[in-house]
Amino acid sequence: MIIAERKPLPEVLGMLDASNEIMVLGCRSCTAICLAGGEKESKAVCEALALHSELKGKDWKVETVTVERACEKEFLTPLADFKGTVLSMACGIGAQVMQELCPETRVVPGVNTSNMGAPEGMGVFVEKCAGCGDCILHLTAGICPIARCAKSLLNGPCGGSQNGLCEVSKETPCAWDQIVKALERQGRSDLLGVNIPPKDWRPSRSGGPRRIVSQEAAPGTAQREWRGEV
Amino acid sequence: MIVCYCCSRSGMPAALTALEEGGLDDIIVREVPCACAAEQWEVLRSFRHGADGVLIVGCLLENCAHHYGSEVAARRSAVLKATVKDVGLSGGRVAMVHLAEHQSVRFRKAVEDMRAAIQEQGGQA
Predict the structure, then answer these.
(1) What is the CATH number of the domain that holds A37?
(2) What is the full DSSP assignment across B51-99?
(3) Which of residues 86-125 of B touch A (CB under 8 A)?
(4) Which residues touch A192 (CB under 8 Å, ≥6 apart)?
(5) What pTM was computed for the model?
(6) I need a surface site. Which of A24, A143, A145, A159 has the fewest CB within 10 A?
(7) What does the angle CA A220 – CA A222 – CA A226 come to, to the nearest 5 degrees?
(8) Cβ pair A46:B41 closer than 8 A
(9) What's the confidence (pLDDT) of residue B125?
């Protein structure tokens, strides 16, 4: 899932200074799981903004709406008529989809979108995937060296791996130490001999914004013609 | 007015005893199943509805029936303290107190401390 964290309130207040009508838009998907922009968090921000407005005499009209998934237009369409400022508590994707749907409305981010990861413990979220577009998890015992190694090394650890920890931080396990141990556990130490070639970064961000088209689901020529798109 | 979110196991019995003893006419007691059930938005809404301070009353840290509910509430109250300051209220408006159900004196002391802190900042308690 997408991991995000709430922006500091003073920063949010600064972005909303010239607004009158504000909608705090929460998302029940990823940002709700990482406790940054779900229903509860959006309600808390909404109350904080309303309180700030009352204390400072700003006359803001603040409301909050939480949708199932802010990255899908279907869920946002009922909000398309809103004319004020949208404070998006969804990830950067949700904020941009809302902006595309309402081009004349000002959409500002309420969270800092960080990475693709998973909850590791209560309130702790760790990056697991860098979205590089060319997965090699089958060679690395299901542990991604691109996202979880500070140097994104592909063929073993660097000299900074000490006692299973990365030199970058004592809280960060060395991904390659984990990979070696996991391969030994799985009886697949032979995979350590596979030479992974230098990474082709074109399927990653280096190739610009990526676009994936599902051959099955994306409309074909006949369908596009029927819809008047060709 | 001070709104007290009291855990039903510890804070509520302590608050009721303290109320019976009198002298706490300026407080509103709200029972919650655990101190951590007092959500951020509820506390902030209390301020919008006229509260001068909010006191979260939970079990002693080692004695929480929900194991770590009281701990979560303490961390949340720390976040709330910062939030309340950020929106423009003076300090000392949010506090957390850990007590056992027989410690009504501790509850009263927490209310009196908060009252004093609010009055020091120029507000009414």
Answers:
(1) 3.40.50.2300
(2) -SEEEEEE--GGG-TTSSHHHHHHHHHHHHHHHHHHHTPPSSSEEEEE-
(3) 86-89
(4) A156, A180, A183
(5) 0.89
(6) A159
(7) 115
(8) yes
(9) 47
Residue A54 structural domain: 2-115
Expressed in percent and rounded to 5, the helix, strand and coil fractions of chain A are: 35, 20, 45
The identity of residue A178, as a single letter, is Q
Q: Does B17 touch chain A (CB under 8 A)?
A: no
Q: Which amino acid is at B119?
A: Q
- H/E stretch holding A125 reads strand A124-129
Q: Do A56 and B88 touch (CB under 8 A)?
A: yes
Query: Residue B106: which CATH number?
Result: 3.40.50.960
ipTM of this predicted structure: 0.90
> Under an 8 A CB cutoff, do A55 and B87 touch?
yes
pLDDT, tens digit, for every residue of A102-137? 999 999 999 999 999 999 998 999 999 999 999 999
User: CA end-to-end span of chain B, whole Å?
Assistant: 5
Set of chain A residues whose Cβ sits within 8 Å of the Cβ of B66: none
Which tens digit of pLDDT belongs to each residue from A152-193? 999 999 999 999 999 999 989 999 999 999 999 999 999 999
